[in-house]
């Protein structure tokens, strides 16, 4: 869920915070909790043609491959798919390239990630699965539907960080900018300090959501959004994936969307600061027979709409014959 410029902004903010804030018990407790939370999730590892992939499985019923966004991992996938798990689906949540226990190959492209997902489905003996891809995860979700159409029973690009003709290409990073971003994202301390000192700033930049929406939301929704942000820790175990997403989702390539055969529902929100509503419109206009669901407000993490959006996804999967 992070663009190139926001990574640099995070670095500058984190460095500034670090200059004036102390470390100590707060950081040690915070990073210990973060590591314990990830370790407590029952996960497995499977060998793919691009190296090992870590994944977690929860629930029972029709299979749904839940592909996380930037800053995530299998833990974020399970968080996002909580309502699907409760609603009677078997959710398979992998960690994409460079996240948590998954390998980082020489060419971590969405196409290669899609091929690795096909290997995961083989290992789990799943002939087909519905696929939900959130934010940057929508790229490899759509690539899976294009490259392995027989494996995808239904497709849901959710706030997709994908190509749209209306968006100008981003300026490439300089080598200095990339080195700086690598240093910042490798520091759990800097990220913890930034979350602690400037949660609203990170909500706007990393989660592409107006902090005022979160402040006005219910206690449950505020806790959900805070959880998404805090779950990026330990960021050092996600740094390579974040950097790869900055390249691929920060400047996404056009895809052969007209080749997608699976029933498709693109979902986004008009006030998403990453402008994924434009991408969702492009998907719906290009994928044959695709449906489009746009909401006026909610930001990139759909504040106040979690129950409604996943109810919509559930209804779409059932209408598509996912079983």
In short:
It is built from 14 helices and eight strands. With 323 residues, the protein is an alpha/beta fold.
Describe, in plain words, how this protein is organized in 3D.
With 323 residues, this protein is of the alpha/beta class. It has a single domain (4-319), classed as Rossmann fold, CATH 3.40.50.1820. 46% of the residues lie in helices and 14% in strands. It is built from 14 helices and eight strands. The chain has a six-stranded mixed β-sheet with strand order 1-2-4-3-5-6, with helices on both faces. Strands 7-8 form a two-stranded parallel ribbon. Helix 7 runs antiparallel to helix 12. The longest helix has 17 residues, at 4-20. The two termini are 30 Å apart.
List its salient traits.
Rossmann fold, single chain, 14 helices, 323 residues, six-stranded mixed sheet, 8 strands, globular, two-stranded parallel ribbon, alpha/beta
Secondary structure elements and pairings:
Elements: H1 4-20, H2 25-40, E1 44-48, E2 51-58, E3 63-67, H3 74-80, H4 82-86, E4 90-94, H5 110-123, E5 129-134, H6 137-147, E6 152-158, H7 175-185, H8 188-197, H9 199-205, H10 211-215, H11 219-230, H12 239-248, E7 265-269, H13 276-286, E8 291-295, H14 306-319
Morphology call: globular
Structural class: alpha/beta
Could you tell me the radius of gyration in angstroms?
18 Å
Spatial order of the strands forming the largest sheet: 1-2-4-3-5-6
Q: Specify the CATH architecture.
A: 3-Layer(aba) Sandwich
Unreliable stretches covering 5 or more consecutive residues: 11-21
Give the biggest sheet.
6 strands, mixed
Order of helices and strands: HHEEEHHEHEHEHHHHHHEHEH
Question: Hey, roughly how much beta strand do the residues contain?
Answer: 5-15%
The named CATH superfamily: Alpha/Beta hydrolase fold, catalytic domain
Indicate how many domains the architecture comprises. 1
CATH topology category name: Rossmann fold
Which CATH class is shown? Alpha Beta
What's the rounded overall pLDDT mean? 91
Task: Please give the share of residues in helix.
Answer: 40-55%
End-to-end C-alpha gap: 30 Å
**What is the overall number of helices?**
14
